[in-house]
Amino acid sequence: MSSENHKIKVGVIGVGVLGRHHARLYKASENAEVVGIYDVVPENAQRVADEFGFKVFSSPEALAEQCDAVSIAVPATMHHAIGMQILKMNKHVLMEKPLCSTVAEAEEVVKEADKRGLVLAVGHVERFNPAMDFLEKQRSKTRFVEAHRLCSYPPARPGQHPRGTEVSVVLDMMIHDLDLILTMMGSEIERIDAIGIPILSKTEDIVSVRIKFAHGGAANITASRVSSEQMRRFRVFQDDAYISMDYGKHTGMVIKKNRIGLANKEISLNEKNALADEIEDFLRAVRETTETGVLSLPKVPGEQGLRALKLAVDIIDNIREYNDRYGFKFT
């Protein structure tokens, strides 16, 4: 779809660390025309505009009026307010994860998009990671999953929370792995046991959780934003195989039982830009919906973003009930 007349007119609301990449990749896409950008901090918007040659708009509404579709990459606590505003203007939305900061807000956003027949994609970018491409093909007979997602504390920002810390690390980071595990398991959840504590922020900075599924499967997940070690690792134990994937390094290993013992296979996955693929998938869904008049779903639609959010909120509730039960207080 290279004709200028067929390009989707897009804008980006919020051009911080992640929103800047949305804008950059839209500009690089032959399927999009970047109308402009908006950020609540004018200096941020102007810096990105100068870097890529974008027009800066004075409000989200002014930008959305001239667009077919919009990426929203603002703090999670603002997703509902801005998302509803843009959807009510009949614009398609790619919402960064988490879909919203509460289940009630997310349900309202999903309902609004569905009512209007609009594409609502959620930025669970790991679904587009080459490691997940492989894991989805190998997901049968999965019995146990172990995931670790660790990073250092984000730097301070003048007048704002450090990036992501307006919400728990469960919503900021772990939600990626929750979405992957729900996709892999395909079963109802039977029990959650979680523990977590705030260290540098007012919400949980490190969390460990064990999830038992109704079909007998289980998952152990750890997320920390106060680690000296960087890690994004996902390990899957199946009836007849063990798969270890490092979806930061795009490498992995498969150990599989056969008639004579164990067979080992190293996996070197082709590099690709997962966010670019996410954006192209969103543009595809918008184009198909526009051309046919029938809603075309993105790879991660609003309902799946809501599914992951519900589990994340259940984990946070479990943590806080545990801390209250044992009298743990954090300041």
Number of domains: 2
* Count of separate DSSP helical elements: 9
CATH class of the largest domain: Alpha Beta
Could you tell me the CATH topology label of the largest domain. Answer: Dihydrodipicolinate Reductase, domain 2
| CATH superfamily membership of the largest domain | Dihydrodipicolinate Reductase, domain 2
User: Using only CA atoms, what is the Rg?
Assistant: 20 Å
Q: What CATH architecture of the largest domain would you give?
A: 2-Layer Sandwich
In sequence order, what are the helices and strands, one letter per element?
EHEHHEHEHEHEHEEEEEEEHH
Structural class, from secondary structure content?
alpha/beta
Strand content: 25-35%
The best one-word shape is globular
Give the rounded overall mean pLDDT: 92
- What's the count of strands? 13
Low-confidence stretches: none
- Separation, N- and C-terminal Cα atoms: 54 Å
Helix content class: 25-40%
| Biggest sheet architecture | 8 strands, mixed
Strand order of the largest sheet: 7-8-9-6-10-11-12-13
